[in-house]
Structures are given as structure tokens and as C-alpha cells.
Write a structure and sequence with these properties.
Strand order of the largest sheet: 1-2
Bound molecules: aspartic acid
Strand content: under 5%
Oligomer: single chain
Radius of gyration: 22 Å
Order of helices and strands: HHHHHHHHHHHHHHHHHHEE
CATH architecture: Orthogonal Bundle
Number of domains: 1
Largest sheet: 2 strands, antiparallel
């Protein structure tokens, strides 16, 4: 197939075109035109992806659990998955904190720039402070309570409840294992059918991906620059050391730590891994939401990397909801940055506290754009750094959000491959096409 017919190249073209259009639009102040005529295609693309996330997770997880035929195996896979997720997240924050201490980004901000930013973004910050207030008023076990729904239809009506849907699907799958096969079969067949249809729907939605990505990137640039590109470039310059610290940390984690872990936990070649998940990374970058990217992440892991459905259906929805290495790394850098900018020094104990809190926060962070900032406020308050300081970073947050979401999604895929390999459930994918047959490796 010529390169320009391959979906990932078309998405890259969409992305570059969106970037070029966004810059031209920002320079010419085409904000209203972009909002009216370009943005809707991005919204439709994200909506379509979100639309199939719940049926996809329900279908694949219920059939996945029911085919395990062994509850102990489920416990083993669950334990391993959680362990690796938490371990890699802690490592990510440690990298963020280390780099922030090394580069001292907060000390590079001149006081007049700091005061200007605080004044400009304080209104914007207060809405987020309110949202964080609601989160922090909850008890320590609220996370567990949140996981267990009292009505599955309520949970399925909001994509933010993915953890509840995961819980229900596992619970239902376990129930299915315990009824006579004759009774269970029609239900299983039904969910198998749902699963097959949603996977096909992902393929159909991806036909729109180049246009969707174009619209999303164009919209982001126009919104972030607020019709004034020079202002955005000034801001990037003023916060340059901070942005570079986050970007460097994310690159180190994504291109250094993950390949190392992949070599350690799996036989898969690093190049094959990155090539296989390219589409998911592009969608993550343009949507800034690991939740919306989930259907594409599942598709890439199963069809390009050969992760079995049983593993991907369990590991990936869980990862999209609780595993946010990129977010955690950024929270580490941002906490130290804001503390330094307002003239505070964080002790080692404070920083260890940040590490612990950020691991928990990343579990509670919703897989949607900008959710990381809300959890950041809670971290800041726990170490007594003024949370209004988020005003300093809000102007560039969307750009960093795009990058940290790529890391979040890459981490989920890395764990899916590692767990699948350790369970003998990594298949050899014979070629690139989705229609290609898959052969079992073990
Ligand atoms: N946008 C991120 C995600 O969906 C969360 C965040 O860091 O704000 O993965």
C-alpha cells in the first residue's frame, strides 16, 4: 500500500495541516470562523470515539473474563497489572521531581512575569480551585466507593465512570463463569457480537481521523493563542524552562524508561512496539484524552502488537482510568516549579509526600483534557504551596496536556504487552493489515 493511503500517515498529514492552518488562523484572527466551521469536526470525532468506549469495554471485558475459566488467574493478572501501573507511575514522578530540582524552572521566571501571569489567569484558576475543593472533601476510601456502582445504567451513561464499568464487567463475567454453560452461552454470544461490531466501528471512525485530528489541532492552536500567536510564543518563552523540563521528562520516560521495561518484561522489539501504537499516540496527542483514545489503544494493541483480547480488555480500560505516568511526572515538575516561583523551598519530606500523593492522584484523575491540573491543586495544598499558583502554568497547560496524554497511553500499551507476554498471550501478528490472521506464539 502506498504510504499516503496508510491511516497513520494520513493522520500525520491532518496534524501538520491543522498546525499550519491553526498558525495562519491565529495570525489572522480567524477565531470565529474556526469555531463555527472547523471545530465541529473535531468534536464529532471525539464524540464518536467516546460513543463506542462503553460498549467496547463491556463487550470485551465480559467475554475476556468469561473465557478465563479460572478466577485465580484473574487475581494474578490483576495483581501484576496494578503493581506495574503503580511502580511505573512512582518512577515517573521521581523523574519529574529530580529534573525539577536539577533545572530549577521556577527560579527562571522573572518576578514581573510571575505577577503578570497570576493576574491574567487568576480567574481561570478559580474555577479549577472550586473543582479541586469538591474532590478533596472526599474521605480516604472514596476511591473504593466510587468503583462500585449502584446502578449500571447510570454508570454507563457517563464515560468518566469507566472504573465502575470495568468493575461491573468483571463482576458479571465472574457470574457468567458460574452458571451452566447452556445458560451462559447466549449471553456470551451476545457480548461477543457487541465486541466484534465495536471493533469494526473503530475502523470506520478511523476513516475520519485525519479530518478529526486536523480540526482538533486547528481548534487547540486558535484557542490556546486566543487569536494572538505572538502572545502565546511570549508565554512559551517566559515559561520555557518549565515547559522544557516537562517535555524532557516525558521524553525520557516514554523513550527511555518504557523501552527499558519492555526489554525487561517482554521479547517485543522496541521498534515494533512504537510502530504498532503510533496511531493511538497520534489520537492521544490530538484529543488530550486517554479515555477518548481507548478504542484506538485497544485496536492497536490487539491488531498491531498481538495482545490477546482477554488481556487488552482488562489491562487497557483499567490503564486509561488509573495509569497516568505522564500526568504524574508533570505534577511533580509543576509542584516544584510553582513552589520555586513563589519563593518556597520544598523539603525532601515534602517531595516524598508529593510522590505519594501524585501516585494516588493519578489513579483518581479522569482521562479527559485538563484533569491533571485539578489533581495538581490537591497536591499543592497538601504541601502548603499556594494553589492559586496554577495560574502560572494554565496558559501552556493544554500543550503539555497533549504530550502527557501520549505518555499516559504509551504506558498503558507497554504494560498490556508486558502482561500479555508474561501470560503467554502475545500473538505474532503476521503483517500490518487489520484483516491479517494472527498466529499464537506459544
Ligand atoms: N489529559 C490526560 C489524559 O486524559 C489527563 C491529564 O493529565 O489532564 O490522559
Amino acid at each position: 500500500m502506498p504510504w499516503y493511503k496508510q491511516t497513520h500517515w494520513q493522520i500525520i498529514l491532518g496534524l501538520v495541516a491543522g498546525l499550519v492552518y491553526g498558525i495562519i488562523a491565529a495570525l489572522n484572527g480567524w477565531t470565529a470562523f474556526t469555531t463555527d466551521w472547523i471545530t465541529p469536526f473535531g468534536v464529532i470525532f471525539i464524540n464518536l470515539l467516546k460513543l463506542i468506549a462503553v460498549p467496547l469495554v463491556l463487550g470485551s471485558l465480559i467475554t475476556g473474563v468469561a473465557s478465563l475459566a479460572d478466577i485465580r488467574k484473574l487475581g494474578r493478572i490483576g495483581g501484576k497489572t496494578l503493581g506495574v501501573y503503580i511502580g511505573t507511575t512512582a518512577l515517573a514522578i521521581a523523574i519529574g521531581l529530580l529534573l525539577a530540582n536539577l533545572f530549577q524552572p521556577g527560579k527562571a521566571v522573572p518576578p514581573e512575569v510571575r505577577d503578570g501571569l497570576m493576574a491574567t489567569y487568576s480567574e481561570n484558576a478559580s474555577a479549577r480551585l472550586e473543582a479541586a475543593q469538591n474532590v478533596s472533601e472526599r474521605g480516604p476510601l472514596q476511591l473504593l466507593i466510587d468503583m462500585v456502582p449502584d446502578n449500571i445504567f447510570n454508570s454507563a451513561s457517563d464515560n468518566r465512570n469507566m472504573l465502575q464499568i470495568v468493575f461491573f464487567a468483571i463482576f458479571f463475567g465472574i457470574g457468567l463463569l458460574q452458571v451452566p454453560e447452556k445458560r451462559a452461552k447466549p449471553i456470551l454470544d451476545f457480548f461477543h457480537g457487541i465486541n466484534d461490531v465495536t471493533i469494526r466501528l473503530v475502523d470506520l471512525i478511523m476513516l475520519m481521523a485525519p479530518l478529526g485530528v486536523f480540526a482538533l489541532i486547528a481548534d487547540t492552536i486558535t484557542k490556546v493563542s486566543d487569536g494572538n500567536l505572538v502572545k502565546l510564543l511570549d508565554l512559551l518563552g517566559a515559561l520555557g524552562v518549565y515547559c522544557l523540563t516537562v517535555v524532557f521528562g516525558l521524553a525520557l520516560h516514554t523513550l527511555g524508561v518504557y523501552p527499558l521495561l519492555l526489554r525487561f518484561f517482554s521479547k517485543m522489539k522496541v521498534f515494533k512496539f512504537f510502530k504498532g501504537i503510533g496511531k493511538a499516540q497520534l489520537v492521544a496527542f490530538s484529543t488530550s484524552s486517554s479515555g477518548a483514545t481507548l478504542p484506538v489503544t485497544i485496536e492497536c494493541c490487539e491488531e498491531k502488537l498481538g495482545v490477546s483480547e482477554e488481556i487488552s480488555a482488562f489491562v487497557l480500560p483499567l490503564g486509561a482510568t488509573i495509569n497516568m505516568d505522564g500526568t504524574a511526572l508533570y505534577q511533580g515538575v509543576a509542584t516544584v516549579f510553582i513552589a520555586q516561583a513563589v519563593g518556597m523551598d520544598l523539603s525532601l519530606a515534602d517531595q516524598l509526600n508529593v510522590l505519594l500523593l501524585a501516585v494516588m492522584a493519578s489513579i483518581g484523575t479522569a482521562a479527559v483534557p485538563g484533569a491533571g491540573v485539578i489533581m495538581l491543586i490537591i497536591i499543592l495544598e497538601s504541601v502548603h504551596v499556594p494553589s492559586a499558583g496554577i495560574a502560572l502554568i494554565l496558559g501552556v497547560d493544554r500543550i503539555l496536556d497533549m504530550l502527557r496524554t501520549v505518555t499516559n497511553v504509551t504506558g498503558d500499551c507497554m504494560v498490556a504487552v508486558s502482561i500479555a507476554d508474561s501470560e503467554g498471550q502475545l500473538k505474532v501478528v503476521s503483517s500490518e493489515s487489520t484483516e491479517d490472521k494472527i498466529k499464537w506464539e506459544k
